[in-house]
Amino acid sequence: MDVALIEAVEVEETGLQVRLPDGQQAYFNAWWLRDNCPTSFDAETRERVFDIFHHAETPRPEEAYLDSGTLVVRWAGEGHVSRYPLEMLASYADGKRRHDPADLPRRPWFADHYDAMTRVSHPALLEDAGERRRWMEALLIEGVAIVTDMPDSDEGLTRTAGLLGTIRPSFFGDYFDVRVHVNPTNLAYTSKALEMHTDVPAEELAPGIQYLHCRRNSVEGGRNLFLDGTAVANDLRREDPEAFRLLAETEVPFYKEHDTIDMRARQRVIELDHNGEVSGVTISQHLADIFDLPQRFMDAYYPALVKFGRMLQDDKYVMRFTLRAGECISFDNHRVVHGRAAYSATSGERYLRGTYTDRGELRGLYRAMVSEGRFK
Ligand SMILES: [Fe+2]
Questions:
Q1: Tell me, what's the pLDDT at 376?
Q2: Rounded CA gap, 77 and 87, in Å?
Q3: Tell me, what's the pLDDT at 373?
Q4: Hey, which of 32, 201, 275, 353 has its CA 20 to 30 A from 261?
Q5: Which residues contact 244 (CB under 8 A, 6 or more apart)?
Q6: Does 3.30.2020.30 match the CATH number of domain 3-91?
């Protein structure tokens, strides 16, 4: 034991004052310390196996001292000894969120993004972890990337999406076919124009990452329209803070009714992250329910919504291009707003096959790929 460091720990009624290696005096709560003793975690599963709810008494340090970069605590009553690396304590000293390597800064993009859009080839993704990482980073930072050289098969999409998570069904099933249907359940299944939207806001948790695999596209018209919803929302925040506030704070209803389906969910049109920054948008004219908000509130809300909706048509933001057969566009469905121009159904064939995975899985895979991790 390093005698000179004994006074670096002070026992208080509810916890300990510890002098960290950088000289900072930091307080740690006794419950927190006892709960997070390194022995609380199972070496194999890495899960917490210590159960603080079954701890009969309030944890009280009987003895506490520093010993070669470690805080040693002997707990009263049970006699258990905990050893905490000071490095671990230092990272929790300020009550700041644990560092998240998947929390990459979003880079807004505009109408001219087509040439700069990240492209990765399907065969390279299957073989090369570096290419998978480049793809994941494009989705985290820009929210969009094109996968090229896709095989002309259903399996191709399954393998592509499977690289970023588990297929996430919606009420259309595991996969959906965007082409002209005989009895369409959705505007996408017609040749009509499809206004700018994010998918399936009528579900409580709308799907996170969307994949649209273009299998055939020889029709006249039907250009793809994509924009970065966060870029638009950030501009609205600067231009009209009150409209922005209304869209970021108010939940509005979305719905999907068809045969046996009666889905309803409420969403905020502008989504903020834990830093108060715009992390996404939810917009869909064809799935917006009749707003059941006070009519007087609508005096302020509608102008804000319409202003934002008009910005979503602005040439400054909308990237227009034609997805080619063999390309699969992947994008963050909570951030990227998409639509389609009308096309002539008799002029050729247009067939896109789609599916979803979730954003949490993408972030989880990315962390596991790049992070040192708590347990590594
Ligand atoms: Fe869509």
A1: 61
A2: 28
A3: 63
A4: 353
A5: 233, 236, 237, 270, 304
A6: yes
CA dist., res. 332 & res. 226, Å (int): 11
Task: Return phi, psi of residue 366, to 5°.
Answer: -65, -45
Low-confidence ranges of the chain (pLDDT < 70): 1-7, 372-376
CA of 90 to the centre of ligand 1 (A): 46
- Eight-class DSSP state of 267: E
Laid out side by side, the sheet with 224-228 consists of 194-197, 336-340, 224-228, 319-321
Residue 109 Cα to ligand 1 midpoint, Å, equals 20
Q: Using one digit for the tens of pLDDT, what is the confidence trace for 311-325?
A: 999 999 999 999 999
Q: How far is the CA of 198 from the centre of ligand 1 (A)?
A: 6
Residues ≥6 apart with Cβ < 8 Å to 299? none
Compute, in angstroms, the gap from residue 187 CA to the centroid of ligand 1.
9
C-alpha 68 to ligand 1 mean position (Å): 58
The domain 111-370 belongs to what CATH superfamily? Clavaminate synthase-like (3.60.130.10)
Q: How far is the CA of 128 from the centre of ligand 1 (A)?
A: 30
Q: pTM here?
A: 0.92
Centre of ligand 1 to C-alpha 65, Å, is 60
- Provide the Cα torsion 98, 100, 103, 105; round to 10°: 80
Sequence ranges of the domains in the chain: 3-91, 111-370
pLDDT tens string 92-134: 999 999 999 999 999 999 999 999 999 999 999 999 999 999 9
Contact predicate 329/323, CB 8 Å: yes
Helix (H) / strand (E) containing 124: helix 122-127
Measured in Å, residue 353 CA sits from the centre of ligand 1 at 11
User: Cα(280) to centroid of ligand 1, in Å?
Assistant: 15
